[in-house]
Amino acid sequence: MTLIQNNGRGDVSNRRGQGQVFVHQHQGAASSSPLPAICDPNHLLHRVVVLVFMCFLGFGSYFCFDNPASLQTQVIKNTAGFMQLYAWYSWPNVVLCFFGGFLLDRVFGIRLGTIIFSLFVCVGQVIFATGALVNRFWLCEVGRFVFGIGGESLAVAQNTYAVNWFKGKELNLVFGLQLSMARLGSTVNMNIMGWVYSKVADLVGSPGHFTLGISLMIAGVTCLFSLFCALVLGFLDKRAERILHKEEGKTGEVVKLTDVKDFPFPLWLIFIICVGYYVAIFPFIGLGQVFFIEKFNFSPAEARAVNSIVYIISAPASPVLGFLVDKTGRNVIWVLIAVVTTLAAHMMLAFTFWNPWIAMSVLGASYSLLACALWPMVAFVVPEHQLGTAYGFMQSIQNLGLALISMVAGTILDTRGYLLLEVFFCTCVCIALMAVVSLYFVDYLRGKRRTLHHALIFLPYFL
Q: Membrane-crossing residues (predicted)?
């Protein structure tokens, strides 16, 4: 095995995929007058404070992203319409994956850009909640579209702050902590929003769209908290720029659509793996609550709990598995293991009545493993100057796949039921599996050809 089975990930992070990041050293000296440790941008204690706000920057976005899944029984009218809420989140990111980094670097700057994208998240959640309040589903869809404009770009801004404040091996830990906090947001949402809805229903006097709207407004408080974190980060980063005389952070993303024609075949296989795998994860979680209620006779609270286990496991497992992949390399093998175990989990859910906690625990571990092993492989198969384009394109087709498959999954469920839906998800994972196997053999054959080439070069010296 050659390029892909590298012994390190590189400084690359992911949330359903992020772009390349580059480490910027802090330049300049500290101010002439000594500062307390917690106020000194050069000191670790100050950077820990910054890291706390950095981690909570995306908490609200992740918390509210799966609000529909945690309140599926309250939101749903028909499943196809319900899944449009996820599709509308993904549509703007089919394009913004290419231009989000440009907007942050060249138009807004990282500080203003982070605040603007945080505002999009807040406004989107308010529109979504207002749509529920007035019982207008089209307004809910508009809210999710606006929410999507901010959500993915905010993750790019979060990564840029991390690169600007931390360096070297610190980045792996920082990215792991950020991912863990994101998964914590998703987990808290899954387990608390049903309780919030029931409490609001008790206060209002009855369940219904008005109660749903109030509950979603309450969830929006987490977005306001993230906006507060964006404002604090902007202040601290501006202050550090003044004291340390350093430049404002850049995303490091250089996107040239003309590079697409030069993408190597292994990269297209990675794209297929990405789409085939993730469309069997996020749409399933979006529909999971009712699935567990109907098939396993779970209560709504139990269904929400088992549906959240993927995120619960991902929170602590992602940094650990990332470290494991770093140390062992063999990314293709790890991706193969993740895809096979995911297929096994979906087959258990489809064809058995085993306790779903088993299958969902397997799904959570495999999801975390794939995220750690798949995204860094892009850096192993394309030159550095194409990385921004490659990651942007990968995110773009991932969001396109999620938007389309979300609608298809809703239609299948409305017309054919959960069994055929699970078969459909298994088929998607099988496509990813075939792409992984193909990638393994392509990489193996390229390694053999490279070995033969070197042997032919040195052959005259042995004759």
A: 44-65, 86-104, 110-134, 210-236, 265-285, 305-325, 332-351, 357-381, 393-413, 419-442
